Amino acid sequence: MADLYSRKGKLNDAYQLISTMTTPTGTIWSLLLSACRVHKNVDLAEKVASKIFEVDPENIGARVLLSNIYANEDEQKKYLLYGHSERRAIAFGIMSTPAGTTIRVIKNIRICVDCHTAIKLISKIVGREIVVRDNSRFHHFRDGECSCGEYW
């Protein structure tokens, strides 16, 4: 049953089920740890790994799997911030200019949907105006909104 929950992505249900077993083995916990990797649930993976290390401290496979989960999370973070040049430029601008300064970025290709959405959120969070010039227009981001009105 825990395997079915895990495969369906119902990781918390699987965790609760395994937790109610009288003596869950490292193998059973490892099944859930593998599902945490597939479904990218790092927080639960850490809990599950600690359970594995309690019942099976010599479980090298769990250590390797947890390491892979951390590596995947790092790759996702790199992609979210560093995958697109405008996000990198904005992050650098925020770090290297005084609060309230308008950040201006110029690029020669069209801004992608993910970056457009991210920059709207960034402008709201940091409370700055961010101006991005792509190959067709200026985008003025302020308070979580863009001047293009989502028509670009």
From TrEMBL:
Molecular-function GO terms, alphabetical: RNA binding; zinc ion binding
Record Pfam families: DYW_deaminase
Domain of life: Eukaryota
Domain DYW: 71-152
GO biological process: RNA modification
InterPro entries (UniProt xref): DYW_dom (IPR032867), PPR_At4g14850-like_plant (IPR046960), TPR-like_helical_dom_sf (IPR011990)
UniProt cross-references to PANTHER family, sorted A to Z: (WILD MALAYSIAN BANANA) HYPOTHETICAL PROTEIN, PENTATRICOPEPTIDE REPEAT-CONTAINING PROTEIN
UniProt similarity note: Belongs to the PPR family. PCMP-H subfamily.
Name of the molecule in the record: DYW domain-containing protein
